[in-house]
Each structure stands twice: as structure tokens, then as C-alpha cells.
Amino acid sequence: MTFGKNNFSLRPALLAVTMTLVLLGIMASSHAADGNDVLLKSVMARLANVKSAKVDFVEKKFVKLLNTPAESSGVLIYTAPDRFEKHTKKPLEERMTVERDMVTLDNVMRKKHQQIFIPQFPALAAIVEAMRGALSGNLPQLQQAFSIAVSGNATRWKLHLVPLEASQYAYIHAVDMTGRDDFIDSIEIFQSDGDRSLMSMTRAAP
Fold first, then answer.
1. Cα-based distances in Å from 11 to 6, 17, 19
2. For the chain, how big is the Rg over CA atoms in Å?
3. In whole angstroms, what is the distance from residue 32 CA to residue 160 CA?
4. Which runs of consecutive H residues, i.e. helices, occur in 49-176?
5. Backbone angles phi, psi at 170, to 5 degrees
6. Is the pTM above the cut of 0.90?
7. What gap in Å lies between CA 80 and CA 47, rounded to an integer?
8. Interval 105-119: pLDDT, tens
9. What phi and psi values does residue 14 have, to the nearest 5 degrees?
């Protein structure tokens, strides 16, 4: 009987301890979110300071129907605020130029020229918006199109982007970017069909 009374008297104390732990958990979660927000803004601010860049890239495309990844390489050139050019040199030479809402494709070997209006192609729009938003350090632009998660620190970071638009998510499930300071060194694109591509970048020689 005495045990029962003591047990009953402990309930308010246990409840208080439980509530304290819950509140501490909420506070810790809030502080983590605040820290991530500061980190995201810091990373984007550093990227925004880059007005032009030229990098060498190696891209590997992992396709379920192929036993080995398809590999290409070349140069990527960025000019603020919204123009970038992907000049593939191997295995076939071609150029892809993105400016405003247009993509221009030039296949040198086949002598083909094509222009594409980006908003008409959801998968292309997701990729272009991710690359352009990150390269320009335009956080509001990225937030309009993606759910963003950031990890790491200001000198070695990772962005995980998930398209908000259902039409884009139907083709592209996520885009991961890693970087150091103000330099993006990899972009990995995960398609809804299970295929993916990984572009690794290094600073081009002057």
C-alpha cells in the first residue's frame, strides 16, 4: 500500500521530467535547423560571389541496360547570372548552351543544331534550375523549385535537392551537389527510373 502511494506521488515528477526531455529535444531540433539554415545561406553566399568559372568535367551515366557506365568529358563554362555552356569533347564533340529559357544543342560531328524551350520539358527544367540556381548562388530560386537539405560545413558541404513540382519529380527524384568553399565539385542526378548520372569537376587550367 505504501508502495502504491509513493508510486502515485512520483507521477508528477516523472511527467515533469518527460516534458523537460521533450522540450530539450524540440530545442535541439530547432537549433539544428537554425544551424542548417545558417550553413545553407553561407554556402549560397559564397557561390553567389563567383561571377564566372571554367571547369573540367567527367560525367558518368549509369543506365540499367548497360553493364558499364557511359563516360564523357569536357569543359563547363559559367557566366553569371544564368548562362552556362557544357562543351563535351569526348567521346563525341557537342555543345549545350543554356541561357534564360532556352537550351541550344550543337553536335559538331553530325552538324546538327537544335533549340529547346526549357519549360516544355520537366526533366530538363529540373536539371537546369538546379544547376543554374546553385551556380548563381540564388537561394530563393532554388527554394521555389526544390526542397533543400544541407549537410557538412562551409568548407566541405553537400546539398540534396528534391523537386517540388510533381511533373519534374516524375522524371527526376533528386539532385545531389557537393562542394568546397565556393566551388561545386560534383553533381549527381537520380532519375525516377533508377538511372543516374554523376558529373565530377575540377578547376580548369588557366
1. 9, 10, 12
2. 23
3. 17
4. 122-136, 139-145, 166-169
5. -65, -20
6. no
7. 11
8. 998 777 788 898 998
9. -65, -40
